[in-house]
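Protocol step 4 of 6.
Sequence for Ribonuclease J (Lactobacillus johnsonii N6.2) entered exactly as in the expression construct, tag removed. Do not edit the line below.
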Amino acid sequence: MSQKIKIMILGGARENGKNMYAVQVEDEIFIMDAGLKYPDSSLLGIDVVIPDLQFFQDYADKIAGIFLTHGHADSIGALPYILRDHDIPVFGSKLTIELAKIAVQRENRRRKNDLFHVIDADTEIEFKNANVSFFKTTHSIPDSLGIDISTKEGEIVYTGDFKFDPSAKKGYRTDFVRLSEIAQKGVLALLSDSTNAEANFPNDRQTSIEKYIYNIFENYDGRIIAAAKASNIVRVQEIFQAAAATGRHVFLTGRDAGKIVYTAMKLGYLNVPKGLLVHSKDLKKIPDNELVILETGRMGEPLKSLQKMATNRHRMIKIKKGDLVFIATTPSHSVETMVAQTSDMIYRAGGTVKELGRDKHTSGHATGRDLQMLIDTLKPKFLIPVIGEYRLLEIHKDLAIEAGMNKKDIFLPHNGDAYALEKGRFYRTDAVPGEDIMIDGSGVGDVGNIVLRDREVLSDDGVFIAAVTIDRKKKKIISEPRVSTRGFVYIKANHALMNGAADVIKEAVNNNFEHKKFDWTELKQDVRNDVEKYLYKQTGRRPVVLPVVMEVNQNRHRAMARRNNQENNSEKRPVRKNHHKKDSEQKKAKA
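Step 5 output, structure tokens:
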């Protein structure tokens, strides 16, 4: 009897980041990665975005575990929010698990570590309906793994982030022998990385990048400020090597340096020669031509820090004339504009810029040729391109067709799609939760489209506050309306507009009193609508209008009046003298 198998896309399809996928075999669900993505400019005030946590509410009793491919935020970033409410076992390599613990403890210090389990490429975990094993892959962080779920119907393979590089060093090498073994078992479905599918040129080898960085450090006679993501361990290692080889010291700055970089050093994944790293107190003692400042961070954080350095707003470092700023990572399309702006600021401050991505073809993700090579090696029956924006999934599909796959066997998923296996083929079935959950501060999912729309309006046209005090029983306005604004117009230069708005408020309140039965909601809505129309007619802008309607407290006024009357009456009463007290005082005086 065939097994019931379902593949579910929980995040990471048609977007950059937020990778999370699930495979259900009978009544067991295996989660592969649990990542986040960083917001674009349209998500005002949002810190990060994670997959829909409703899935864990609906299927908590079936989830066998969460299996991680590597330690970047796009694979582990959602764990803190999932483990707040669910005790689910988490499996990953040694470095991945350590970084996952850091991420979880940052959000929930009380979370115990007994849920985390360290595995390696030789591990195979037997479950009731399937076995889960792993294989080594090449990425920009060591100990990256792909995942193989072995079922009676065939292997289901998830690559995670990967690329092929025969020159990769130990800890970064792809295990091609293991891939061949998986292929021999028969691959039912392949979920494969699409991030770099449109690359026409092969990635430069790691040895070539090392020589490139060494030449920069060797041939520049001045201070070097290198910017890299803290989680790009391979790049951090290359910078350390080049600094040591050219007689330079390294000073680490950046929010994540002490967490990710030092964790990798402690576990032996970063080789740091003795005396290479220096403290901030030693900076003034070291000549500029012997110093490298390594600015690390997540996503765009190194660039933001460089901007602060260029504009003298950084707490420690200021870019000065003669500095070389080396942007040591290849920026994604979403931050290319930010890179250009940052470079302009650096040149204005007197520094110069060198970008790795302009001189070398380097990425932690597979090129189109790598993807075709993987398909040729595994020969999957079905392909589901994941980890990438829509155009990249389409390109991946075309590459697979070129490699000999039938287009009917390739699925381009949306988040929330589910594919069930029936009679040897996958068919789309009922959707699963696949919406975005937005994190704003400590709030999880409490910011939705309506709040974001209001924030967008506020950022575009500002806010207009209309306050008025009424006597509901007498149906009249007690005091003149007060109006105020932020981000809309300059009040001192627009007295006529503000006075006109006050008149509109009065008219709206009086019309409501005359023609409607009193209702707080309707009154505020009338004020809002009339003011919005007036402001748009006068300015062509639509600020957020906040009506504040206050009611005078009649009982309070009556109580104050009674108290005032009592005080006045007490002042008019004659003062009674205490004769007994006076007589006793006279007797004491005679004595």
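Step 6, annotate. The chain has three domains: 5-200+363-440, 206-358, 449-554.
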